[in-house]
């Protein structure tokens, strides 16, 4: 009987809920943070957990930002144009057939000298026109021979013939020689396509035997050391407001000098000219390439300069940056920005001094789910 009573008491004791010791609350274990391990992942609040090892693999770099007052910048659409003083076009003066020059037809990208013959154009003429020219040439040659004989006889009789008759015969002979040369060039002559400037062939629209029309552009030559861009401003800019400009070429930012502004609108926009000279600058961008240039103005704006690559887009297509809030946590922050130069933007809202913004690897962090 005592044994059965002891077993019942033990069973009842184990059936009751266990009481926690003093200073311990077993209910808190349910609210403990999960062990994230070493797997990069995006948490429910949008924060990205990225272990140190993954940061090194992705090449993530951060930099602190500080507010600064910089010149205000606007972004304008533009395109690469030819320098009218150092570039040129080679056009056919007459309709005809293309023949190779002394060195053959120049290839695209080859350098040419000023005055160099790039190709020949054999004038196109019909059969009747050629026959008429040939007949005129034959008649003029016959008259040339008669004039030579007449001049020779007059010179033999120089003592009895007035000098004015000899001079008239000499003038007539010279005129016939000129007519023969002109008709001969018209029958079998050809027009030379000469390089107007020294530079690099940017476009070649000719092959041997090709028939071209008059005024057709056959070659385009650019200056290899000069870059010129024409931008369109759709807002009124006061004279002297524009200081300089920059254009991004890959990861490189090329500074441009302001050359001038047109005083007549084109398609409701004001054309602005920018340019710069340097070794190989003219070969960085092809003619007609559309670009975006950042134009610096005299007025200023305050914000946080950050590299262009630090700016990414959220799933809602909103501009944002990634800020490092702890050694392995990155928080997205929505920002407002405006262009600064070819490689940087000016964040005007959304950051604070001292924030460590991701400047390398932001696009990779943005893809973590």
Automatic annotation (TrEMBL):
InterPro entries: MdtA-like_C, MFP_Cation_Efflux. GO terms for cellular component: cell envelope. The keyword Nucleus does not apply. The keyword Lipid biosynthesis does not apply. It holds the Pfam family RND-MFP_C. One of its GO terms (biological process) is copper ion export. Gene3D superfamilies: 2.40.420.20, 2.40.50.100, Helix hairpin bin. Coiled coil: none annotated. Residues 1-20 form the signal peptide. SUPFAM superfamilies: HlyD-like secretion proteins (SSF111369). Keywords: Signal, Transport. Residues 306-362 form the Multidrug resistance protein MdtA-like C-terminal permuted SH3 domain. This is Multidrug resistance protein MdtA-like C-terminal permuted SH3 domain-containing protein.
């Amino acid at each position: 009987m005592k044994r059965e009573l002891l077993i019942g008491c033990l069973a009842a004791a184990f059936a009751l809920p266990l009481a926690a010791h003093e200073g311990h609350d077993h209910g808190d274990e349910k609210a403990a943070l999960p062990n994230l391990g070493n797997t990069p992942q995006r948490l429910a609040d949008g924060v990205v957990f990225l272990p140190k090892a993954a940061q090194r693999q992705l090449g993530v770099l951060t930099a602190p930002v500080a507010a600064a007052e910089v010149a205000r910048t606007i972004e304008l659409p533009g395109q690469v144009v030819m320098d009218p003083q150092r570039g040129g076009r080679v056009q056919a003066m007459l309709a005809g057939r293309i023949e190779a020059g002394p060195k053959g037809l120049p290839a695209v990208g080859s350098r040419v000298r000023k005055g160099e013959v790039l190709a020949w154009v054999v004038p196109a003429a019909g059969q009747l026109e050629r026959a008429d020219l040939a007949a005129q040439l034959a008649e003029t040659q016959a008259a040339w021979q008669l004039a030579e004989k007449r001049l020779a006889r007059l010179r033999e009789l120089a003592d009895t013939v007035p000098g004015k008759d000899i001079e008239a015969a000499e003038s007539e002979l010279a005129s016939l020689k000129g007519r023969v040369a002109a008709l001969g060039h018209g029958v079998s002559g050809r027009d030379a396509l000469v390089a107007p400037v020294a530079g690099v062939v940017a476009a070649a629209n000719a092959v041997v035997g090709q028939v071209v029309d008059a005024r057709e552009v056959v070659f385009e030559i650019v200056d290899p050391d000069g870059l010129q861009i024409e931008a369109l401003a759709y807002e009124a800019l006061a004279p002297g407001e524009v200081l300089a400009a920059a254009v991004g070429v890959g990861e490189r930012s090329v500074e441009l000098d302001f050359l001038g502004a047109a005083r007549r609108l084109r398609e409701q926009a004001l054309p602005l000219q920018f340019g710069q000279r340097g070794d190989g600058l003219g070969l960085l961008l092809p003619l007609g390439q559309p670009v975006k240039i950042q134009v610096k103005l005299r007025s200023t704006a305050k914000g946080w300069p950050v590299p262009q690559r630090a700016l990414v887009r959220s799933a809602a297509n909103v501009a944002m940056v990634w800020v490092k809030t702890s050694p392995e946590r990155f928080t997205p922050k929505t920002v407002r920005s405006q262009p600064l130069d070819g490689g940087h933007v000016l964040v005007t809202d959304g950051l604070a001094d001292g924030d460590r913004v991701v400047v390398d690897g932001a696009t990779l962090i943005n893809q973590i789910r």
